[in-house]
Every structure is written in C-alpha cells, then in structure tokens.
Design a protein that fits this description.
Helix content is 0%, strand content 22%. It has no helices and four strands. Strand 2 (32-36) and strand 3 form a beta hairpin. It binds zinc ion (ZN).
C-alpha cells in the first residue's frame, strides 16, 4: 500500500487510466506508483519507459500473472 503524509499532496481521480492493467514489459501511459494485482507489491514506473525489471516475489497459482495497475499518478504540471 502506498503511503503519504500530507493529504493535500494527493487527490482522488476518476480517470480510466487507474483501471487499466499492464503486463511486465509494457509501457504505461502515466508515470507513477503501480501496484501488482496479484501480490500487492509496488513499483515506480515512468510513462515513457517499459516497467522496470524488478525482482518480483514469485506468485502462487491463486495470485495469477503479474498485472500492474496505477495506484498514484505523478503530475508534472504545477497546480
Ligand atoms: Zn505480484
């Protein structure tokens, strides 16, 4: 689970990009923190580059394949 300290650093988004799942090796549309749907581990990925090859815990059969889903998106425009 991602952590944060100041609630005004983040806000809820209803963007469909948060529902999209990516396989290892794919390139995500947004930079941010992605969480594995199988085991819950997290990784930081850049929107312009394939997911980094991290040492990933081995999944059980129940956990299925590694699927990354956006948890926290980074924004590079000032607000
Ligand atoms: Zn996993």
């Amino acid at each position: 689970m991602s952590l944060f300290k100041r609630s005004n650093d983040i806000e809820v988004s209803l963007s469909p990009e948060f529902d999209r799942e990516y396989e290892p090796g794919q390139t995500p549309a947004r930079s941010g923190i992605y969480r594995c749907r199988g085991c819950g581990c997290e990784v930081v990925a850049l929107g312009s580059q394939p997911f980094p090859a991290v040492s990933h815990p081995k999944h059980s059969l129940n956990q299925g394949a590694v699927r990354w889903r956006l948890a926290v998106a980074a924004q590079n425009e000032p607000h």
